[in-house]
Amino acid sequence: MTNKRSPADNVGVWIALLIYSLWLGHLVFALAYATLEWRSFWLWVHIFVQGYLFTGLFITGHDAMHGTVCKNRRLNDFIGWVSTLSFAFLSYSILRKNHYLHHQFPASEKDPDFHPHSNNVLFWWVRFMKHYTTWWQLVLMAVTFNILLIWFSVPQLLLFWVVPAFLGTFQLFVFGTYIPHRRPHTEQMGIHRARTLPKNHWIAMLTCYFFGYHREHHIRPTIPWWKLYSAKDPGFPIV
Asked: Which of 5, 3, 11 is nearest to 69 (CA)?
């Protein structure tokens, strides 16, 4: 007897493909057609939209680390690998290893995402960036940048590719790491040392694809990002 897969099993794959298509499609469109006039409203729209899509790209890779994109392990990991590679040539395997440590030792000295000596957002972010940036990653980005210069200008690549990637990284860090795990830690936060946003799904989606509901994620890491809103518990400590 063969097990038939439900269409619901593929929802995570379709959502991942949608985010990736939006990220790639908007990037190509912005590079090809967006104005470089600083006073243009649409210039800033394209920059911030692309930054938000970069955030979604990483969230897709993050869900793959938890095996929630697809029940097929190979397809799940392939989607995670493509998503993190496309984000900034990040290593999916290194990210997954560090993320497991984050869940095992949240907001402690063993947590690679935590700054044990400072609560300053900028110091913490710099440490966060240094921890995940590698020389081979920078080399690949530099090579890609120079190849893309065949078709696009330096301002185009900076405004619609480089700057949005930094914006996405900062958005992920602030709403997915710093605010949920910053000190002071209280007994109410529990062993996960994680806070959560007040229950406002629109704000949660706009800030970090529901990952402001951070304690919910630590308690139930097998729930994909697009279902986290349904796990929101009003009794959790809020930001």
From this structure: 11
